[in-house]
Structures are given as structure tokens and as C-alpha cells.
């Protein structure tokens, strides 16, 4: 017997379990007066319904006075609870309404003002509770409440056909409409809340994506700067025995150790580069230092020459003092830096020719290196491709073009065109 009752009891328990926490109606409103409005209205309804019910029940329906007061409290008082728990309030008030109907003597003498099976205050109170249940509870709970109210009203009326004046149909029809309206408003509110949550999630995802893009930019800046300098250190240490013929054996060995350490540092730097590009890496920051530009290319070439890498530079003299767009200025420097770093890594000892020129429309950067020959061993035979990717993105940033590739007789060529107009437009309209 008990297993057979388990499923129906579980269904009833599920049907009449509140859908969510007891949050007050309009509790999320910004204005305090709006948040207090449901409580004020519930107090007003109780202040009206309680004395009216306590008066109508004994005078018009023949209910004993003390019982009428108790029924009035049980039928009207739950409206105060309905602000937070409408289903519980209905669960208290509706049985009290049914008990009140059953306690009315059959010979109460029903006046024209008397309605059956519930007096007017109870009808209004039931309609308010049914609306609040529709606003708060699940559709199946709303349907169960409506069916229970309708079935009970029909049963009471059927038991006393002489009292039937159709008043119970008001609760059935109007209450059903109010519950449907409440359910529609609840669904609309739920959809708006879900949309707001989705917008919040989307905004968080956009912020996260922006952070990842910034980490990628930092990683590429790190690659451009650190890899170049570490490569130069490695070449200097490797070429020291050839540039300094009288170098003692101990010093030559020391330079070899320095070169090996530098290579290990390059490998560690590349692993760190992968960490910086990972979305799980912690946030970091760097010092705000001025970004290099075309006026620093000469220093870059000098440092590379001092490392033993022959470089010829052709630079328009006016560019050193020209007010170039910042994006073009930085991109030109980074392209030359990455190109020379690639020459140092892949063709040490080969002559590299750097040319930077300008016209009215933009800047042209050209880096060409001869085939590698000599005693130097390439630091790398295969690269990760980050350098060329960085070049392409810097050129794309200013709306320019990039042409890279090996030369027919050996060597490599990097040619970039950086227009001024696109960079100026980007500077004036960063959101574009």
C-alpha cells in the first residue's frame, strides 16, 4: 500500500512546492517606495477584508460571531504572507474559505447580497492570491491551484443547488485569467533576467577575450625585444674566438658557456611566451616605457654590427626628426628588429641591408640578407613563425602590405609598406 501511495504523494509534494526562494514581490526594484508598495497594499487589503468579513459572516450568513472572527483572520491574514510566499498564503486562506462555506447554516436565508459559496471579500482575496501564485510559481503549480479551486467551488455548489447563483464561476473564470496573466508576466520577467545574465556573461567573455588579445600582444612584444637581444648575445659569444685571435683558452671556454646559457635562455623565453599566450596565465604588467621608432633603428643596427653581424643601413635623414604616426613608427622599428633577429638566428655572418624610406603616402621598409657563409653555425634551423606573424599583424594594423620570402640566389627578403593615411585614421578613430 505504501509504495502505491508514494508516487501520488511525491507528485502532490512537487506540485505544491514553491518554485524559488521567498523573495518579496518587486524586491529588486531600485526605488524604495516601489519595494514597499506590495507590503502597503497587503496591509490595506487586510485592514479592509478582516473587519468586513467578521461582520458579513454572522450578519448575512448566520455564522457564530467568535467563529466568524477566527475565520476572518484565517481568510484575510495570509495576504500579509503573500508578498513573500503566495503559495503558502493560498494554502492557508483557501482551506479557511472552504471551512467558512461549510460552517454556513443551510437556512441562513440567503439575501440578495449573499453570494455562494464564498462572500465577496473572500472572492476578492482569492483572486489576489491566485494572481500572486501565477506571478511566482511554475505553470504546473498554477494549473493545480486553479483546478483545485474550480473543483472545490463546483463541489460546494453542487451540494447546495438552492444556493447556486453562479458566483463561484467568477473565481473560476476571472481567477484563471489572472493566473494566466501572472504566468505570462513571470515568463517575461524570467526571459528578461536570463537575457540580462547572458549579456553579463557575454560582456565578461568580451573582457576575457580582450585580455587574451592583450596578452598575445605582450607576448609578441616580448618575443621581438628579448629574442633579438638574446640572439645578439649568443652571436657575440660564439664569434668571440674568431674576432679575438689571441683569446686565452679559458676565456674562449667561458664565451662558449655564455653562448650555451644564452641558447637555453632563448628556449626558456619561448616557453614563457607560450605561458603568456595561455588564457590561464595570471595577469601581469610591465613598466610604461616610451616605444621605439624609426629614430632608434640606427642604434639597433649599431648593436647588431657590434655583435659581429654585418649590416648596411640606408635611412632617409629627414625620418629621424619626422613626426610619423605612432603605429607606423613603432611598426617600422619592430619589423627591422625582427628581420635582423631572424638574420642573426638563421644566417649569422651574412650581410644584411636595411633600407627605410618615405614618400608622401607612406613608409617603405626593406631588409635583405645575403646567403650565409662563414664559420658561424645557425642558431636555429627552424623557427616558430611568431616573428613573421608579428610582422603581418603590425602591417595589418596600419593597413599596409608585407612581402616576405627567400631570394632566388639564396638569402631572404622582407619588404613592408606602411601607409600614413590608414594609421592617421586609426589614431583618430580607435574604435574602428
Overall geometry comes to rod-shaped
- CATH homologous superfamily caption of the largest domain: Histidine kinase-like ATPase, C-terminal domain
Report helical residue fraction. Answer: 55-70%
Counting H and I runs of at least 4 residues, what is the number of helices? 13
Described by strand count, sense and barrel closure, the largest sheet is: 5 strands, mixed
Provide a descriptive summary of the structure in words.
The protein is of the alpha+beta class and 432 residues long. The protein has two domains: 2-106 and 113-165, no CATH class; 218-279 and 293-374 and 386-428, Heat Shock Protein 90 (2-Layer Sandwich), CATH 3.30.565. Helix content is 63%, strand content 8%. It contains 13 helices and five strands. The chain has helices at 2-15, 32-60, 65-76, 78-81, 86-103, 120-136, 139-159, 167-243, 249-276, 297-306, 326-346, 386-397, 420-428; strands at residues 311-315, 352-358, 362-369, 401-406, 412-419. The chain has a five-stranded mixed beta sheet with strand order 1-2-3-5-4. Helix 11 (326-346) packs antiparallel against helix 12. The radius of gyration is 42 Å and the shape is rod-shaped. Residues 109-113, 279-288 and 423-432 have low confidence and may be disordered. It comes from Streptomyces caatingaensis. GO terms for molecular function: ATP binding; phosphorelay sensor kinase activity; protein dimerization activity. Residues 194-221 form a coiled coil.
Amino acid at each position: 500500500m505504501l509504495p502505491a501511495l508514494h508516487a501520488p504523494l511525491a507528485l502532490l509534494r512537487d506540485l505544491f512546492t514553491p518554485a524559488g526562494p521567498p523573495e518579496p514581490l518587486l524586491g529588486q526594484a531600485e526605488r524604495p517606495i516601489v519595494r514597499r508598495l506590495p507590503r502597503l497594499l497587503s496591509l490595506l487589503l487586510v485592514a479592509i477584508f478582516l473587519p468586513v468579513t467578521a461582520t458579513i459572516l454572522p450578519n448575512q450568513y448566520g455564522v457564530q460571531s467568535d467563529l466568524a472572527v477566527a475565520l476572518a483572520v484565517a481568510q484575510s491574514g495570509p495576504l500579509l504572507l503573500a508578498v513573500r510566499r503566495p503559495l503558502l498564503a493560498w494554502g492557508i486562506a483557501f482551506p479557511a474559505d472552504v471551512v467558512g462555506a461549510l460552517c454556513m447554516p443551510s437556512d441562513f436565508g440567503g439575501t440578495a447580497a449573499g453570494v455562494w459559496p464564498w462572500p465577496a471579500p473572500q472572492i476578492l482575496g482569492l483572486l489576489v492570491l491566485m494572481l500572486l501564485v501565477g506571478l511566482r510559481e511554475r505553470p504546473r503549480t498554477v494549473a493545480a491551484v486553479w483546478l483545485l479551486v474550480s473543483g472545490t467551488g463546483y463541489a460546494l455548489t453542487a451540494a447546495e443547488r438552492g444556493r447556486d447563483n453562479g458566483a463561484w464561476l467568477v473565481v473560476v473564470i476571472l481567477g484563471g485569467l489572472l493566473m494566466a496573466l501572472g504566468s505570462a508576466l513571470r515568463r517575461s520577467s524570467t526571459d528578461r533576467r536570463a537575457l540580462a545574465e547572458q549579456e553579463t556573461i557575454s560582456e565578461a567573455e568580451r573582457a576575457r577575450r580582450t585580455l587574451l588579445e592583450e596578452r598575445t600582444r605582450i607576448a609578441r612584444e616580448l618575443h621581438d625585444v628579448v629574442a633579438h637581444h638574446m640572439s645578439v648575445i649568443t652571436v657575440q659569444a660564439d664569434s668571440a674566438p674568431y674576432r679575438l685571435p689571441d683569446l686565452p683558452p679559458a676565456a674562449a671556454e667561458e664565451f662558449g658557456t655564455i653562448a650555451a646559457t644564452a641558447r637555453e635562455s632563448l628556449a626558456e623565453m619561448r616557453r614563457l611566451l607560450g605561458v603568456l599566450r595561455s588564457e590561464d596565465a595570471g595577469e601581469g604588467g610591465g613598466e610604461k616605457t616610451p616605444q621605439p621608432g624609426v629614430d632608434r633603428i640606427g642604434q639597433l643596427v649599431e648593436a647588431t654590427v657590434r655583435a659581429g653581424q654585418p649590416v648596411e643601413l640606408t635611412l632617409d635623414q629627414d625620418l629621424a626628426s619626422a613626426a610619423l604616426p605612432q603605429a607606423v613608427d613603432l611598426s617600422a622599428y619592430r619589423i627591422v628588429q625582427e628581420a635582423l633577429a631572424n638574420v642573426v638566428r638563421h644566417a649569422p655572418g651574412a650581410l644584411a641591408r636595411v633600407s627605410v624610406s618615405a614618400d608622401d603616402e607612406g613608409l617603405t621598409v626593406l631588409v635583405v640578407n645575403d646567403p650565409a657563409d662563414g664559420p658561424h653555425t645557425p642558431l636555429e634551423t627552424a623557427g616558430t613563425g611568431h616573428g613573421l606573424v608579428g610582422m603581418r599583424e603590425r602591417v595589418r594594423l596600419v593597413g599596409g602590405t608585407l612581402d616576405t620570402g627567400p631570394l632566388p640566389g639564396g638569402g631572404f627578403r622582407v619588404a613592408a609598406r606602411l601607409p600614413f593615411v590608414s594609421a592617421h585614421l586609426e589614431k583618430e578613430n580607435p574604435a574602428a
